[in-house]
Backbone:
C-alpha cells in the first residue's frame, strides 16, 4: 500500500476468506502492481451509445467478470508483469501499456487449510489500458447501471465504480 492509495471498501469476515479475515478494495493510480499478487484483472471502459459508461466483461465460471489471469499454478507463482502481458495478449492480440487503478487486498492474519495464498496479505490488482483500445476477445460491454445490478457483488466492483466516478 502506498501513501496515495485510497481505501474505497472493506468487507470484514469476508465469506470467501478464512475466519477473521478482511477483503479491502483500494483505489490507486500506479504503473507498479502491489505485491504479492495472486491474480491480475483488466478493467476496460468506454462511453456507450447512450452516453453511459460501460465495462468490458468476459464469461467466466461464475458469470460475467473482468478479464482475469490467475498467477499461481503447478510451477509456482508467475510475476504480475508476465501475467498481465499474457492477459493483454489474450484480450488484444498484443501487449498494451497498462496502469494499476486499484487492487483487492486480502488481509488474512491466520490462514486455514483451505487458504493457499500468501499471508498476511495477497493482492488482486486491477489494471486499465492507456490508451483505450477495443478488445478482440469475445465478451460484452456492460453498462454501469446494469453492472450495479449484476456485478456489484464482485470483489473488484468498488474499484470499477471509483474509477468511473466523476468525483475521483
Residues:
Amino acid at each position: 500500500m502506498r501513501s496515495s492509495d485510497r481505501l474505497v471498501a472493506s468487507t470484514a469476515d469476508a465469506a470467501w476468506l478464512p475466519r477473521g479475515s478482511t477483503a479491502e478494495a483500494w483505489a490507486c493510480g500506479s504503473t507498479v502492481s502491489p505485491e504479492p499478487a495472486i491474480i491480475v484483472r483488466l478493467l476496460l471502459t468506454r462511453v456507450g451509445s447512450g452516453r453511459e459508461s460501460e465495462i468490458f466483461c468476459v464469461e467466466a465460471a461464475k458469470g460475467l467478470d473482468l478479464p482475469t489471469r490467475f498467477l499461481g499454478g503447478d510451477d509456482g507463482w508467475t510475476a504480475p508483469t508476465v501475467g498481465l502481458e499474457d492477459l493483454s495478449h489474450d484480450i488484444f492480440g498484443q501487449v498494451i501499456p497498462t496502469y494499476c487503478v486499484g487492487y483487492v487486498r486480502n488481509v488474512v492474519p491466520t490462514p486455514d487449510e483451505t487458504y493457499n495464498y500468501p499471508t498476511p496479505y495477497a493482492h488482486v490488482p486491477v489494471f486499465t489500458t492507456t490508451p483505450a483500445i477495443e478488445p478482440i476477445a469475445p465478451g460484452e460491454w456492460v453498462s454501469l447501471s446494469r453492472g450495479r445490478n449484476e456485478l456489484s457483488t464482485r470483489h473488484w466492483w468498488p474499484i470499477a465504480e471509483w474509477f468511473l466516478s466523476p468525483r475521483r
User: Anything to note?
Assistant: The domain at 6-164 is CATH 3.90.79 (Nucleoside Triphosphate Pyrophosphohydrolase).
